[in-house]
Every structure is written in C-alpha cells, then in structure tokens.
Design brief:
With 399 residues, the protein is of the alpha/beta class. The protein contains 14 helices and 15 strands. A hairpin with a 7-residue loop joins strand 4 (60-62) and strand 5 (70-72).
Length: 399
C-alpha cells in the first residue's frame, strides 16, 4: 500500500487520559511507523503544550456541564489539508466535522464506535428524557455510523447495540495496549499503607463508571486499602460515600497521573476492581491483566470479552456487590489461586499488540479505498495537499 494521508478525528485527546486517547495515540504511532502521514485532529487546550508532532489542534470552548472537557469549534480554516481516509473516533463536533469533510472531499469515512452513547446522555441536560420519548440516540447512531463506509468496534459485546441501531456489518478490532510503556514505568512511592491488601481501580470518576459499587465492596473487605487512579465529576460524591461508610481512611484518591507512571501502580497492586457496565472496551482491564493483576469486574458489553472469567479474573452481574466481595476475598485469601490467575492474566492481557491492531485497521482502509467501495471517486485536488516534509520522508509517494 502506498503511503496514505490519514486524519484521526477525536473530540477527546491529550491532556485527557482515557481509552479513546490511548487507542488514538497507539494507532497513530503504528501507522506513522509504517510510513503513513497521520494527523490527530483534536480540541485545543489553552494551557497544554503538545510534545507529539502528529496533532492538529482545533479551537475549542469549555463545556459548561463537564468542566474538564473542551468542545471543539471547527471552522473551514482548520482543514486546509485533505486526507485519503477520514477516521473518526467520536461522534461530537469533530466527529461530525470529519464526516462532513469526507463527504465534501469524496473521501472514505471510517468510524470507530468507542463509547456506549446511551450511557452518557446525562451530560446533556434534558437529553435522557428526550431520548426515552423519541429514541434519539439510536437514531443518531444510525445516521452517523450507518452512513460511514466502515464501522469498527473494539469488542463483540457492542455489536448488538450497533446492529439494533441499524448499522450494517461493523468490524470488531480490539484496542491495543503498549506493554513497553506500562512495564518501563519508573518506581513510585507506594500509596498503599504498609500491611494492607492492595486494591486498585482506574478510570474517569463519572456516574456511569459505578465506582460507588467499588467503594461498597471495599466496606466488606477489612484489611484492604483502595487506590483510585483518575479524576472526574463524581469525586466529591465518592469521597462523601467513603466517609458515610466509615472507610475514608482506607481509600486514597491519587487523581490523574502521567501515562508513563501508570504501570507502577499496576505493578504494586494485588487486585483490580471494576464495576462499570457501560464499557465498550475496558482498556484498564487489559492494562491490569497485562501487568499480572487479576481482575474482578462487572461483565457487560465490552468487558465481557475483556476478562476470561475463571482464568484471568472473574466477571459478575451488573450491580452484584456481593459477588465482587466474594471473588475479591477468594483471590486475597488464597495465595495459590492468586498466583495462578496472575500468570494467566499476564498471558491473556498480552494477546493484542499495537502492530497487529494497526494492520487490521489498514486492511479496513484498503477495503474502503477500493474503486467503488468508498463514497465516490476522489477529485484531483484531494490528492495534492501533502507537506514537503512528508514527500521528503516518503519518496515513493507519487500521487
């Protein structure tokens, strides 16, 4: 395949740290390593200085109902460079802009469905009631993803939602984790008090992530200390809950840490607890297992394929705190069982490599670029805008 110009459009990116950001960064790195020109089109953060060279920032505004979030406000001037493939990773303002530009340029549009959208309607005031009355979210999914030339989803657990919304033939390509970054994390001072059993949970502290159930489980695990890695709008409520249950001294909220440090927290942990039932991929489960940490998690949608229950950890029914507690006790109280599942977790978590995922994505690009498979023949001007540096680094590029 000749080098391509690829635009990865995402409404969430660095300095935010989440599964979508990880996925986009790794995909961009692997595509560029294969000689392709990649731009990550993302919202501007006024006080953040990019160290990556593949980012095109778009002017943004602060989103009132989610203070840490920036809502991109793209204009025509933001997109002077055209792409051979537009790959959207979110369906908000930049995702919509990417889809619109793909139609304008007659360029294939590939969309990855990372997020269970129905679980996030509460971030828009009044939207949950509107969605219940009009089925607005499934209709939007059909309109946005149904018109894409190809749709990728990270797990088989999300296929039914897409198919129910009318999306035809989505492709399952798992999101990868870079083991080198996790394993090379420098040592940190342990946030767990000496002599306690070390439980870890990671993610954005939001209502749909159900960290409240993790704290409920902690209350039934005497001798255990929970470290919460992440930040979000629910932190105050979670701290209040810990106080109400009398476990405030057994919970440490460490906030957001640099990606290069996260592996050190997994390295120190004995058990990973996760109660979200809205995940499309559950990357933190993969990270924990890759570092040899057995997982006890809710099994729903994306997490169903994220843990091999009974082999690398355990999956329980949504909301079943008693089962979270029971399996946690088994692992913490039986060293031989913990050692066995730790070994299996490391093996299971390492099955998907960044390079293998990139090759699968490139195969999707190849298919939509075949004559007659995309949105139409691309006009001549759409193949001319490449940077001089790109031509110097890719002399075989002769479009």
């Amino acid at each position: 395949m000749k080098p391509l110009r690829i635009g990865l459009f995402t409404d969430t990116f660095l300095p935010d740290q989440n599964g979508i950001v990880t996925s986009v960064c790794l995909l961009s790195d692997e595509l560029r390593a294969r000689g392709h020109f990649v731009e990550v089109v993302a919202p501007d953060f006024p006080d953040f200085w990019d160290t990556r060279l593949d980012v095109r920032r778009v002017s943004s505004i602060r989103y009132t109902f989610l203070p840490t979030y920036r809502l991109a406000w793209p204009t025509r001037k933001d997109f002077e460079l055209t792409y051979d493939v537009v790959h959207t990773h979110t369906p908000l303002t930049l995702g919509l802009a990417g889809a619109r530009l793909a139609r304008k340029w007659h360029t294939p549009h590939v969309a990855t469905y990372h997020t269970h959208l129905s679980a996030y309607t509460h971030y828009v005031p009044g939207l949950p009631a509107v969605d219940r009355a009009t089925h607005l979210v499934p209709r939007f999914i059909d309109q946005f993803y149904g018109k894409a030339d190809a749709v990728i989803t990270p797990t088989a657990g999300v296929l039914e939602e897409l198919k129910t919304a009318g999306v035809k033939n989505p492709v399952v390509i798992p999101t990868s984790i870079n083991p080198r970054v996790l394993e090379s994390a420098p040592p940190i001072q342990s946030p767990w008090p000496p002599g306690t059993r070390r439980i870890l949970t990671v993610g954005r502290l939001a209502r749909e992530k159900r960290f409240d159930l993790v704290i409920d489980a902690l209350a039934e695990l005497p001798g255990a200390h929970l470290v919460v890695l992440g930040e979000g709008p629910e932190r105050f409520n979670l701290e209040h809950q810990a106080g109400r249950l009398g476990v405030q001294d057994r919970v440490t909220f460490v906030g957001v840490r640099p990606w290069t440090e996260i592996g050190a927290y997994y390295r120190l942990a004995e058990l990973f607890l996760f109660a979200s039932d809205t995940e499309t991929q559950g990357l933190v489960l993969q990270e924990a297992q890759l570092m040899g940490v057995p997982v006890v998690a809710v099994g729903a949608r994306g997490t169903l394929s994220g843990v091999q229950s009974g082999y690398s950890g355990y999956l329980v029914a949504p909301g079943d705190v008693a089962a979270l507690v029971r399996h946690s006790r088994e692992l913490l109280d039986e060293p031989q069982l913990w050692s066995q599942l730790s070994q299996h977790a490391r093996e299971f978590g390492g099955r998907t490599t960044p390079g293998g995922v990139a090759e699968q994505v490139l195969e999707v690009y190849r298919q939509v670029l075949e004559p007659g498979r995309g949105q139409g023949a691309r006009p001549e001007h759409a193949a001319k805008s490449v940077t001089p540096a790109f031509r110097r680094n890719n002399p075989s590029y002769d479009r």
